[in-house]
Write a structure and sequence with these properties.
The complex is a heterodimer of chains A (127) and B (341). Chain A has 127 residues and is mainly alpha-helical. Chain A has two domains: 35 residues, no CATH class; 74 residues. Helix content of chain A is 51%, strand content 9%. Chain A is built from five helices and three strands; from the N terminus they run βββααααα. In chain A, strand 2 and strand 3 form a beta hairpin. In chain A, helix 2 runs antiparallel to helix 4. The radius of gyration of chain A is 24 Å and the shape is elongated. In chain B, a hairpin with a 5-residue loop joins strand 17 and strand 18. The longest helix of chain B has 9 residues. The chains are: A mainly alpha (127), B mainly beta (341). Chains A and B meet through strand 3, helix 1 and helix 2 of A and strand 16 and strand 17 of B. Strand 3 of chain A pairs antiparallel with strand 16 of chain B, so a sheet runs across the interface.
């Protein structure tokens, strides 16, 4: 069962009203929260994020970073740039981008992914 | 010598210690407000502890000739025919901020107001400190049913002792317009009491009959022992004063945050600014959302998170639901509640 309150940054959130309440002694809702805390030892606010929310955030963060790396290397796949690379560089970049696309599927723990090794040509481009 | 003065109109001199005394501003809506603890007209709160139920609404019923748009109207929804010792009902409760109350300490002041009810009899007004250990009760009578009457009460804030607070963000002095009070909270009128009294033994039980009404407007508290004409402040001035305690950033002035491009799953941050410095760090409630571009398509109020709330503004964030290279924005309406305790 969800608690009446949950942690929200430096304050709390009233889960019934959706209100964000600052940690401020002069705020009347913060005082109500303090009274609620004191009323019973079983009155405990929920953590800011559930386990599922933390996992979802980790996956979202992983995909965002992966998408960013793909976007940054898109130019290497344009016809002119691709043709300017050596055969080995072409193979390395193509494999690197493929590994990036496969990363979410190959990852068990999104907080500890094994990022594909960047080819030298990618590093040389400041990526 | 040339004298510059006018005898044509009263001067605006900010003599009234009450904000929104003429019930002009209702940022929370026009009611009915039915839950004890609700703020109704700006700066005015309704509280009760009784077996009855009540509603407070904005009313266009005003005294003739006093140039008012609205009064606040309380109505009995469910009667409380037997007043228990711990019962009380305050349809209209006003709190003066400590720093604003400080000039009144040791001084004589006059409270004037217009009131109307279908129930005649004796009613009480109580002044009480934030520590609830000093109070002063004054009785007045409503002489004629369903007739607007102006009441004038004088008080000297010459209390000694008690827990009083005089700073910004503090509750300095509470003023209660009482409609019912049991014996636990009754006190003798006319002197400072070392207890938490909300009315006298003479207070009628206004809640005894369903559909009883009580209207109030043009409340003014000023220095001295004379009730002068009501101090009409310009609307923008009055609204700004109200917004120190409560601000409704409504749908027509959304707090909007824009970005060039969005990435799915990425969290975007924005800020919000109150129109004036609030009395205390307020509680923020997101009341509506809008968006443009695919990045924040379909977000709801639960998708906006607020933190780092200060008396001047706050931080907010929202996570993009789609990657979109174009201009993306999320916007939201909200309320900021910094009313005094």
């Amino acid at each position: 069962m969800a608690s009446k309150y949950k942690i929200a940054g430096d304050g709390i959130k009233d889960t019934e009203t959706g209100a964000f309440i600052p940690n401020a002694s002069g705020n009347r809702h913060w005082q109500e929260y303090q009274t609620w805390l004191a009323d019973s030892t079983s009155n405990i606010p929920d953590p800011e994020f559930t386990e599922q929310e933390l996992e979802d955030q980790a996956w979202a963060s992983l995909r965002a970073e992966r998408d960013s790396l793909l976007t940054k290397t898109d130019f290497m796949m344009t016809q002119d740039y691709y043709a300017s690379m050596t055969s080995q560089e072409q193979t390395d970049v193509t494999a690197y981008r493929s590994d990036l696309r496969d990363l979410p599927g190959d990852t068990v723990d999104p907080t500890d992914p094994t990022w594909p090794t960047k080819p030298q040509i990618v590093i040389d481009n400041g990526i | 010598m040339v004298k510059y003065y006018s005898d044509q109109a009263p001067l605006r001199n900010n003599k009234n210690f009450i904000i929104n005394g003429n019930m002009e501003i209702w940022q929370r809506g026009t009611g009915p407000f039915t839950t004890s603890g609700d703020y109704t007209a700006d700066r005015w709160r309704y509280t009760e502890s009784s077996s009855g139920s009540y509603s407070i609404s904005r009313s266009t019923d005003v005294p003739s000739g006093i140039n008012a748009n609205y009064s606040a109207e309380a109505t009995v929804v469910t009667a409380d025919t037997s007043v228990d010792s711990g019962d009380w009902l305050i349809p209209f409760h006003y709190t003066i901020e400590g720093v604003d109350f400080l000039p009144l300490v040791g001084k004589t002041a006059t409270l004037s107001f217009w009131v109307k009810s279908n129930l005649t009899g004796t009613y009480s007004v109580s002044f009480r400190n934030s520590g609830a250990d000093r109070s002063y009760v004054i009785d007045y009578t409503i002489d004629q049913a369903n007739t607007w009457e102006r009441k004038i009460l004088t008080i000297t804030f010459d209390f000694s002792g008690g827990t009083w607070t005089y700073d910004t963000g503090d509750a300095g002095c509470n003023i209660y317009f009482t409609a019912l009070v049991g014996s636990d909270r009754q006190g003798v009128p006319g002197s400072w009491l070392s207890s938490n009294c909300l009315g006298s033994v003479n207070q009628v039980n206004w809640a005894a009959t369903v559909s009883n009404t009580l209207n109030l407007t043009h409340v003014q508290l000023e220095f001295g022992n004379v009730a002068t004409d009501f101090d009409y402040r310009i609307y923008s001035d009055e609204l700004a004063r109200c917004q120190r305690y409560y601000y409704n950033c409504a749908n027509d002035d959304l707090n909007k945050v824009s970005f060039d491009g969005s990435t799915s799953g990425q969290t975007y941050y924005g800020s919000g600014q109150f129109p004036c410095k609030m009395a205390v760090q307020p509680t923020i409630t997101v009341t509506g959302t809008s968006e443009s571009g695919a990045g924040f398509n379909g977000i709801g109020t639960g998708d906006i998170t607020v933190d780092n709330i200060s008396v001047q503004g706050f931080r907010n964030r929202c996570t993009a639901v789609a990657t979109d290279a174009g201009n993306n924005s999320y916007g939201f309406s909200y309320t900021a509640d910094g009313e005094l305790i």
